[in-house]
Specification:
By secondary structure, this protein is of the alpha+beta class. 19% of the residues lie in helices and 27% in strands. The model has no long low-confidence stretch (mean pLDDT 94).
Length: 217
């Protein structure tokens, strides 16, 4: 039986991120990142942000629900180097690339990588500094969700931080000006955004207008 070609890149949120203050101690918080699987139509499997170091069993199980084993992941991308985004990188020792922000490596070999992550030129890594100066986002064109999806890490904490900027500012920003600029730029590029600590949301013109106005704050 002939296998039907995959016509769209599959973008699957394996686990939605979250962040909230501890109910008993206002000086502490609970947080874990959104973890996303990209099944490119050329057969490349990419995982973006790998949860905490205590999530190894959980992440292995999440991949099994997609009929994937750890060795089936070809590329690991972490939007930045914070511990809730890189914790399970150690699981993917057979991946050909580990990208953490602007750092790209395989074992002890570090080098520069440019261009798309897939042969069709539809999955790209973009520099999106702000939350940290080395932050990146993954852009997926021709997605099965519809149009272009931006997997943005903590450039966006969650959808609500568009109205309430204190959400992303209090989460930490190494350069607020750059972060505002990149938030607007990504809204122009994307139809959907997967934020670092909340559910995927759709980008419309009203949202883009709000982000444009906030660039000059």
């Amino acid at each position: 039986m002939l296998k039907m070609p995959i016509l769209k890149n599959q973008v699957i949120v394996l686990q939605e991120g979250y962040s909230y203050k501890d109910s008993t101690d206002a000086t502490t918080m609970h947080a874990n990142c959104s973890c996303t699987l990209i099944r490119c139509r050329d057969g490349t499997n990419i995982i973006v942000d790998t949860l905490t170091a205590w999530d190894g069993e959980n992440l292995t199980t999440l991949l099994k629900t997609q009929q994937l084993q750890l060795h089936d992941i070809h590329i690991v991308v972490c939007t930045h180097g914070h511990s809730d985004h890189v914790g399970c990188n150690y699981l993917f020792q057979q991946a050909r690339l580990h990208i953490i922000g602007s750092s790209i490596s395989n074992r002890d070999l570090y080098y520069e990588h440019s261009g798309p992550l897939d042969i069709h030129g539809e999955v790209l890594v973009e520099q999106t500094p702000g939350h940290t100066l080395s932050c990146v986002s993954v852009i997926v064109h021709n997605s099965h969700i519809g149009g272009t999806v931006g997997i943005c890490g903590d450039l966006f904490e969650r959808r609500e931080d568009i109205e309430d900027e204190q959400i992303w500012i209090l989460a930490g920003s190494e350069n607020e000006k750059q972060q505002r600029e990149q938030r607007y730029r990504m809204s122009q590029l994307c139809n959907f955004i997967i934020p670092g600590h909340g559910p995927i949301f759709e980008v419309d013109e009203a949202l883009r207008s709000k982000l444009k106005l906030k660039q000059n704050v």
